[in-house]
TrEMBL record:
One of the Pfam families matching this protein, by short name: DUF2520
Domain DUF2520: 153-278
SUPFAM superfamilies xref list: 6-phosphogluconate dehydrogenase C-terminal domain-like, NAD(P)-binding Rossmann-fold domains
Domain Putative oxidoreductase/dehydrogenase Rossmann-like: 13-136
UniProt organism field: Streptomyces xanthochromogenes
Listed Gene3D superfamilies: NAD(P)-binding Rossmann-like Domain, ProC-like, C-terminal domain
Official protein name in the record: DUF2520 domain-containing protein
Length: 307
């Protein structure tokens, strides 16, 4: 994907000759950021499609002067097309583009869904497109900060073997690090990321809410250092990083937690019990929770379910 040495310039990326024209179908939080990153690498965004007011604003902010056109027109103008629509909308979009003849032979068609590999692009492949699945393992805000966050971001890459090097090169040009994921492993891969990232947001939001009810003026300041250390320890040590009353087998403390949640935040009880039970199982398997203490703890958790 890199330009030959004789075509390189030593000055800014904007002065390098563009190598691929880039289009975006679906100007959500992801597409404009990836197109902006490709632009920094010397490619040239030429068209974007979006429907909502938020999509139009994102496209204008991250891809200024790039025209907003219908999806078919994006494909007509671009050599590399990013399909950045919600997972459930992707199969229908691909089928529709193929049926209407919008796809051109030799066109690079890239989707960013974590759930799907390249099989979802089969209708486009039959029309002559070159299918790539490039999923950035990153949460996006829809602002310019997303382009910076792509530096060092892992991408789940799935592609036909003959396109593997091209797929990995595109990821590297966006500042990311390619991680090969087999077609059949994509759903498990995506479930793992959702379990960690999406549920983390829910847990943090609940924790901040409870701290606020307990009178803490700045829950974010209190949680920041604690959660940062917990995340760092977990990434370094896995289950060995488990601490707290569940890992210690403090059944009385856990019972008090459940009672307080029932009084002040009953909607959070089920989640607390589920996570506590999972934590207990992992702590027990790792040798952190003593079996004689686990019995009382699991009894408390069972009572919590029955109430």
């Amino acid at each position: 994907m890199n330009a030959p040495p004789e075509h390189r310039h030593e000055n800014s990326p904007a002065d390098r000759p563009a190598r691929l024209t880039v289009g975006v179908v679906g100007a959500g939080r992801v597409g404009p950021a990836l197109a902006a990153a490709l632009q920094l690498a010397g490619h040239r965004p030429v068209a974007v499609s979006g429907v909502s007011d938020a999509s139009v604003r994102r496209a204008a902010a991250l891809l200024p002067d790039v025209p907003l056109v219908p999806p078919a027109e994006v494909l007509a103008r671009a050599e590399l097309v990013l399909l950045t629509v919600p997972d459930d909308a992707l199969p229908g979009l691909v089928e529709g583009l193929a049926e209407t003849g919008a796809i051109r032979p030799g066109q690079l068609l890239v989707h960013t869904s974590g759930r799907y590999g390249t099989a979802v692009l089969d209708p486009a492949r039959r029309a002559g497109a070159l299918p790539l699945a490039l999923h950035p393992a990153m949460t996006f805000t829809g602002t310019a900060v997303d382009v910076q966050r792509l530096a060092g971001c892992s991408f789940g890459v799935t592609a036909p073997e003959e396109l593997r090097l091209a797929a990995e090169a595109l990821v590297i040009e966006m500042g990311g690090e390619p991680e090969w994921i087999e077609e059949g492993d994509r759903p498990l891969y995506h479930a793992a990321l959702a379990l960690g990232a999406n549920h983390l947001v829910t847990l943090v939001a609940q924790s901040m809410e409870l701290l606020g009810r307990a009178g803490v003026a700045h829950p974010d300041r209190m949680l920041g250092p604690l959660l940062g250390a917990a995340l760092d320890n977990a990434l370094r040590s896995g289950d060995a990083a488990l601490t707290g009353p569940v890992a210690r087998g403090d059944a009385g403390t856990v019972a008090a937690h459940v009672a307080e949640l029932r009084e002040h935040a009953p909607g959070m009880v089920a989640g607390y019990l589920a996570m506590a039970r999972t934590t207990a199982d992992r702590a027990l398997a790792h040798g952190l929770l003593k079996p004689e203490l686990a019995q009382d703890l699991l009894g408390v958790l069972a009572e919590g379910d029955e109430r």
